[in-house]
Amino acid sequence: MSAVAVELTESVDITELAKVYREVHAADLHLTDHSEPTVEQRLVWTAEAPGFAATVAYVDGRLAGAVMGCPLPPETLWWRGLDGPVTQEWTGRTFAICEAFVLPEHRRHRLGVPMIRELCGSRTEERVSVAVSESNARVWRALQATGFAHVGDLVPFPGWRPHRMLVCPLPLEGRR
């Protein structure tokens, strides 16, 4: 049996995370949403954001995945392309999960949802949001089962595939 550890952290190794990210998304690295901005740029932007936090998972001592995020500021572009009350931000309203990935060989350990729960368990915001590529049905189903609701679709950056925007009230306790 494998030893699994999930750790909450405010500091990450960008080089190590980028290596795992590239393994996770090897088949899609040619797509714009995995190359522009670069993986390293995206990871650094998230890690340097005010209020940054992450959970990292290790299986038998090897990095197997991560979930990274930060609070959205009132002037965020997170919701660009969507309208309505869901897009209105104020300090303390939304924690955004900006990156989430698990190595394929460790998905059977079901690390994604526990990493999200661990990360969100420390948050004081009213809700959590995540953007999921509309082609990622596995993650979409897992998040819906956890209580995330679909609030609209948008293209996060020019040239990217459409993403489903999901929101869930915090805390996540009591959710599957």
Automatic annotation (TrEMBL):
Record domain N-acetyltransferase: where: 12-173
The species this protein was found in: Asanoa siamensis
Alphabetized PROSITE patterns for the sequence: GNAT (PS51186)
Protein name (database record): N-acetyltransferase domain-containing protein
InterPro entries associated with the record: Acyl_CoA_acyltransferase (IPR016181), GNAT_dom (IPR000182)
Pfam families the UniProt entry points to: Acetyltransf_1
